[in-house]
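REQUEST ID: PR-0412
SUBMITTED BY: lab tech R.K.
PRIORITY: routine
TASK: structure prediction, single protein chain
INPUT:
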Amino acid sequence: MKFKKLILLLTNMGLKGFLFRGFYELQKRSGLLKKKYPTSYTPVEFIAVDKWRKRPSNFFFNSREDLKEFPLPEKEKATLKKEAEQIKKGNIRFFSGNTFHLGKNYDWITNPENNFQFDINKHWTEIPDLNQEQGDIKFVWEKSRFSYLYTIIRYDFHFKEDQSEFVFHEISDWIDKNPLNMGPNYVCSQEISIRVLNWTFALFYYKNSPTLTQEVFNKILNSIYWQIRHVEANHRFSLISVRNNHAITESLALYSTGVLFPYFDRSEIWKAKGKHHLEVEGFYQIYDDGSYLQFSMNYHRVVIQLYTWAFYLAQANKDTFSTALKERVQRSVQFLYQCQDLTTGQMPNYGANDGALFFPLNNCHFRDYRPQINALFHFYSGRGLYDPGMWNEDLFWFGKKVISEKMDIPQKTRSFSTGGYYVLRSSETYSFIRCGNHKDRPSQADNLHLDLWVKGKNILRDAGSYKYNSTPEDLKFFMGTSSHNTVMLGDHDQMEKGGRFIWFHWSQAETAKVEENSSYIMFTGKIKAFQHISKNIKHTRQVKQFKNAPVWEVTDTIEHASIPAKQIWNISPEFHKEGFEIVCTDKNGNKLEPKTVEGFYSPTYGVKEPSTQIVFESPDNYFKTTISRKKVVKPAPAMATEEANTTADTDSTKGKPRGRKAKPKNLEP
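STATUS: complete
OUTPUT:
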């Protein structure tokens, strides 16, 4: 049994990753890794601050004094002011969700969720990132990312109130309380990279501020230098053992530091390494259809934000990335745009979502993807993708002129077969379907999940991911099949859960196609799943979306399964508000009684709200489901006319005789 698990683990990590991870852990536990990361340094003056100020700008902008106006509506200015005031009082919003009061003298090492205080006297290699007593370490890392500084900087800019003293005090306080390579804030190289990028933004914005004295400047530059030395030393771990958005973030930090601080002795090396790995990882992590290997909308947004920074920074420094890479990243923009609800700017709450938004440069809601998609789209086209709005502010901060002209690109039914995503579009309705053939590690057991949207309302939704370090019950629900709109066998997920982010017996798509005629659009897909129960179990799902009304017919068939199946629907409050219902029958046409079950919904990391599930159970493992608005029963007329009887015998969608169907047109996936 242990040998079998070892083989499955190798499938998840690959031989190279498995061997490297084993060697890395051996170094860590033996203390050899600790010796590679010093805990002190002798401060040096890399460059005089006055000389630095006189250098030609190589950032997105020269300084705050050179930035032109970006008008915000009064309502948005009031919101910005309120958020900035809360931050200055020590109230920090975590993961774009809950707010925690950390106070004005936070120690940077206390978990505000459970008040556990990490030991700042321990080397980072001695601190576990997963421990029940310490709780979720991400709650310690969150403020140390310094993403909240963007709210302060934006407040400074829009209200013309100098906040440099507050900003540099926050950075200096962190440096004083976090000795090099000691404590929890050095455990993750991605967290270090985000912190350095955000400090860099603040440095250039306050370039001419009197608060930025030579002493403060030296302190920050020395800390940046040694933190990036850490990132460089640990970069292979992310490139080999992790290889996801972490690797891209760290590569960007190396490239940016190399470009922006050329007086560091390793700047040219960092620039070259960072640029090389941004190229390599972009091709590896972004599939040829524009989808992303982490199967997560939020992590996909993280990646396009990182490449937006990289591309605009290269442009400002007369550098460039390969045309092939830029074309690959451009497909990401196209993919996300085609999966987006334009009414709200939101995406399906699909895949792992830790609330990450490294550079919050606008007032838009966290789930609104327009700012980040638009900023990168402008890099390619020189025009916006949406009508004028708050989402244009990102573009402004990247040093580009905001123009009102947009490029009209239609959203339509699309198949992204490499990643395994299918989008069905009618005039008012939108279906998002996952049917993936995994060559990279899946994060959730969610194959054949179905999201439904009507006029900007996500009536059937993905429940989210809540927290990565939580109770076994929470992890099973949010990472497992139950939080998705698909089918389970009893209480069994589609795949067998391993440790942390590991799944065994990956579900795999066998077939998928989309067809369309004048009346409807139809998706049909088959997956191999539940292989830990039996090797021959297949799940086929057909989704028929009608064009002239918000009506869906969903047929699920489970083959070769002896365990009774249940069909799960995670409904949003808008489902009933908009008057929708779900009716389901078995193979013999017998109506299945719905069960209303308590579920949960997580709009962002660390937030869990009660929600409702509608569940059907079928003894023959077959479900024929209709999702539509409830019919209003009208009194029958006293006498049925000949015309009425004729109408009753026709197809209600187009008035054609029943049994006559327009031949579907196959759309290549």
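NOTES: Residues 638-669 have pLDDT under 50 and may be disordered.
REVIEWED BY: pending
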